[in-house]
Design brief:
Low-confidence stretches: none
Strand order of the largest sheet: 1-2-3-4
Number of helices: 5
Strand content: 5-15%
Length: 247
Amino acid sequence: MADAPLIPSNWQLPDYFRGRLGVSAGRQRLMNDNKHMLIVAHAVPKAGESSRRGLLFWRNAEGEWKASNGDPGKMAIANLLEVYEESLEQFETLEAKAQLAADYLPLLDGLAPFVRSSRNLYEVLQEARTAAPEAKELIDVRDRAYELSRSAELLYQDAKNSMEVAVVRRAEEQAAASERLANASHRLNTLAAIFFPLATLGAVFGTSLTENWSWSRSSGPFVMFVASGILLGLALVGFVNKRPTAR
């Protein structure tokens, strides 16, 4: 299905505006021509959206407002701001539920274009208010747009800071787990080092506690053999654990 045209077919829009508008809305901006004013705004952006959906708000020379989405007159911009505010509440709910860094990533992906769009919308409405001081209806929507933009920026910063804290906390947990694993491995390696010489000597000389032990049938030499192996193991542990000297 083809997208709806940006300019409604029943609008008697000045040629100056038509000449400055293309197929897409482009950036949010204000146009003025002979007491006519045209506000080019964006609908609430969605995460991953490559292009912006444009909305036009036209104030003709008689001070009458029209919106390209069919909303009634002066309430059209206020209705757009209401949609923005509802979307911001959804982001706030997601931020309140987020705990892990993975929870904050989609939140920030959606908030980043939202923050830019709401800030640009406020700047355009501020420009419109300056260009048409007689349009008192712009005061309220300008002020609402400012509060919206400010709240969105604060929420983005809070979410970003919370994600960084979650990342640091996760890194600390992983570091602590790695340290525990390293300590356990060190203990096992120490035990292995203690008994490694004894096992090696036993394998070389074929020693055992059975009667087939070829060295002697008394326990004395065997005890000396075990003691020697343990002493060699302790010496090996000391060598392995020795800290390298600084050059």
